[in-house]
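Structure in, sequence out. Go:
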């Protein structure tokens, strides 16, 4: 029986090279489709999450995770909102806490239907806003106002805009209070023209971080026994000899000191330097002038410092966050002669092209003979002793050569405020609170120098297009005879 000629042609066609390659392509395509279906089926059985935001808005920091590991007793979250009206910024973060520790639970309470319940937590009788979160344990409770879960900046029109999300920061601070039931007492020094923290909007910030803030005048009173730290914020004149003696006695017993000062202190602050010299530090009078555009904003006196590797600065080195800005900064030097038990570390430095203008009457734009060449250290820390054994008292100091640190923060530079709070928590030896900072919503432009521009331009304009051309040409050569 003769085979039909058309059937033979069909059989022969399957033996051609074109059909073989086409068949392989179809098989590979089917395999990929089946693989994707299987992967989707597997993924649907889980709820994986990947935080792609530059500032990790929906992830918990490592320090928060350490705090959660220490929560061994029940802690209750009460959400004061109607069911279904919860904030889309707050609930995802709360769910992360609930997932990480089974001792933490959440109960949503409608404040309109349960006014008696809300009144139990209204200690000041000022009312609690809808949308607030209450964190309670058997040792106490904290109320987090909905507005405290965000950071705001002043706009040019006089209003306010949201600059960052502070949900994790507030909740972790409340957890620390709920775990201990105590609030460290911090004193800010007065009597030298210092800028009050209350006038810079920092009182609420400090109190939200589980600190209590009071003022102290060493001219009329000694350092209180309950002082956990002393802050000297932008003094306009030097300490007296008696005040310096009181601070040295306080530090000698394991006291903690945070100093923000610049040239406005007037001349050589000999008595303040006497205190700092006991711990290997010295304020170098003058103004830092920056010549490197990568280390300044728009004027030579405005410094964007290079951050050193330190617990205080690590959270500020996130590429998605705003940089620290120091205006009319003063350098901080390390003394060659100091006690062996003292450990000194830098926090920030200026560029090698910067210099310290020591003669403020000098008007030359470039460096002169009396100026001190950079790089210059703009902030330093000191500990004595460097390592603590048992209950041995340890003095801790942070000295930043910028009295304008917080006034700049009040203008919307969140990193300045975070540097201040990180410094305060470091001298308090509370590492669990250092890394828990607000998550910035700012998207910063990429800053590239000339060499980087040439490199990236060569990659995207030359190398990548040529690579695609060569790949296409080679593929065409291989397939042209198919």
């Amino acid at each position: 029986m003769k085979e039909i000629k058309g059937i033979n042609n069909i059989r022969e066609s399957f033996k051609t090279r074109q059909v073989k390659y086409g068949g392989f392509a179809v098989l590979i395509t089917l395999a990929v489709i089946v693989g994707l279906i299987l992967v989707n089926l597997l993924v649907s059985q889980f709820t994986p999450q990947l935080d792609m935001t530059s500032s990790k808005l929906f992830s918990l920091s490592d320090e928060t995770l350490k705090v959660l590991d220490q929560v061994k007793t029940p802690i209750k979250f009460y959400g004061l909102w109607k069911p279904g009206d919860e904030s889309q910024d707050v609930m995802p973060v709360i769910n992360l806490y609930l997932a990480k520790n089974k001792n933490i639970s959440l109960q949503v309470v409608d404040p309109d239907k349960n006014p008696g319940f809300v009144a139990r937590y209204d200690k000041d009788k000022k009312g609690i806003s809808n949308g607030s979160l209450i964190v309670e344990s058997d040792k106490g409770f904290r109320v987090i106002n909905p507005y405290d879960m965000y950071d705001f900046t002043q706009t040019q029109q006089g209003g306010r805009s949201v600059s960052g999300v502070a949900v994790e920061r507030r909740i972790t601070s409340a957890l620390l209070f709920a775990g201990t039931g105590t609030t460290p007492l911090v004193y800010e020094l007065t009597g030298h023209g210092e800028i009050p923290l209350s006038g810079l909007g920092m009182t609420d910030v400090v109190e939200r971080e589980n600190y209590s803030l009071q003022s102290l005048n060493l001219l009329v009173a000694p350092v209180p026994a309950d002082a956990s730290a002393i802050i000297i914020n932008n003094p306009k004149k030097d300490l007296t000899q008696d005040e310096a003696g009181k601070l040295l006695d306080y530090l000698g017993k394991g006291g903690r000191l945070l100093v923000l000062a610049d040239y406005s202190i007037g001349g050589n602050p000999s008595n303040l330097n006497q205190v700092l010299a006991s711990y290997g530090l010295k304020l170098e009078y003058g103004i830092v002038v920056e010549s490197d555009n990568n280390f300044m904003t728009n004027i030579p006196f405005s410094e964007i410092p290079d951050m050193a590797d330190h617990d205080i600065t690590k959270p500020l080195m996130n590429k998605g966050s705003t940089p620290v800005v120091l205006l009319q900064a003063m350098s901080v030097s390390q003394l060659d002669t100091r006690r062996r038990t003292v450990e000194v570390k830098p926090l920030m430095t200026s560029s090698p092209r910067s210099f310290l203008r020591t003669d403020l009457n000098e008007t030359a734009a470039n460096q002169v003979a009396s100026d001190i060449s950079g790089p210059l250290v703009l902030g330093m820390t000191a500990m004595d002793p460097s390592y603590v054994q048992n209950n041995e008292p340890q003095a801790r100091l942070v000295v930043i050569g910028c009295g304008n640190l917080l006034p700049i923060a009040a203008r919307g530079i969140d990193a300045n405020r975070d540097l201040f709070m990180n410094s305060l928590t470091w001298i308090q030896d509370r590492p669990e609170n250092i890394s828990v900072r607000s998550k910035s919503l700012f998207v910063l432009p990429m800053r590239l120098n000339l060499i980087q521009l040439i490199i990236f331009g060569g990659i995207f304009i030359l190398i990548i297009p040529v690579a695609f051309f060569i790949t296409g040409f080679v593929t065409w050569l291989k397939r042209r005879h198919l």
